[in-house]
């Protein structure tokens, strides 16, 4: 089963499901639920529940269906992650992983480690992110799944780019090609975004915007809705760095609209905080305050993440603009508590020097 499918494949699965009944639905029901997990997570969970109810009575006599049941658990785990229910997501993911390992399914194991890396990202545990993604890559290679292996490498490159873009370019710049012939669009999504990150951090914001616009479109085509939201905010951040705050606000609002359509509280919070910062730059401090207050509330489950730390940074900037110096100091102290754990150069720079980085990139996976 592909990790990400094109929209046309999802449309084909939808049509194929219509005439089926009973257990005959399972060969279509499970992949459709999998590929809807970000496109429409509520429906994905509903289809997964239906598939589970069909599978449960026959699993003892049809052991070959165990990978399907584990895949349904993984769908549930990813939906929990998107909703910010990290502990439940990890528990369910570990259960799925144990099944995939027991039956010798490296593809399923790779997808579980991928999700564990995303959970570590939202918890701000840098070492675990790298370790889990390395395991995802190892299992993809064991399965001889070239697309999954390329996805893992591209995700690792993006992570490296946010820590040290010069070192990342040296390591990955010649290995990654956004226009490689035959490259799966899901892989291109990550590769293009990698070059967007490196361009933005080198100050070439116009080129970065082009990369992020392309990445955003590829993400929507391949069902990577969270990546698409992140790309929109990155486009907005680049426009802000070019002092075009009105264009920035337009892209930020698109991100908010997409985030609200998903009903994923932490992802809505991420979009709101970026919009709040843009409103602050436009001098709309009251509206910015409302946005940042709501963002912090929705992002509470991700309090250890880089995104939450950046939201604190935005709030402290706003408090300085409002001349609320005692509150700003308290907020900066909260930020300081997270800086060392996150090991992120843009946050650390602000902590140690008080300088505002040229662009704060959103790195959703």
Task: Give a quick account of the main beta sheet: strands, pairing sense, barrel closure.
Answer: none
Return Rg in Å. 21 Å
Give the helix level as a range of percent. over 70%
Counting helices, strands and paired strands, the structural category is mainly alpha
Give the SSE string.
HHHHHHHHHHHHHHHHHH
pLDDT averaged residue by residue: 92
Residues in β-strands, percent = under 5%
User: Distance between termini?
Assistant: 20 Å
Dominant shape: globular
Oligomer: single chain
The beta-strand count equals 0
Number of helices: 18
Structure report:
By secondary structure, this protein is mainly alpha-helical. 75% of the residues lie in helices and 0% in strands. It has 18 helices and no strands. It has helices at residues 7-17, 26-35, 41-55, 66-82, 86-103, 106-123, 126-142, 146-163, 165-172, 185-201, 205-221, 225-241, 245-262, 265-281, 285-298, 306-321, 325-342, 345-353. The longest helix is centred in the first third of the chain and has 18 residues, at 86-103. It is globular. Residues 345-358 have low confidence and may be disordered.
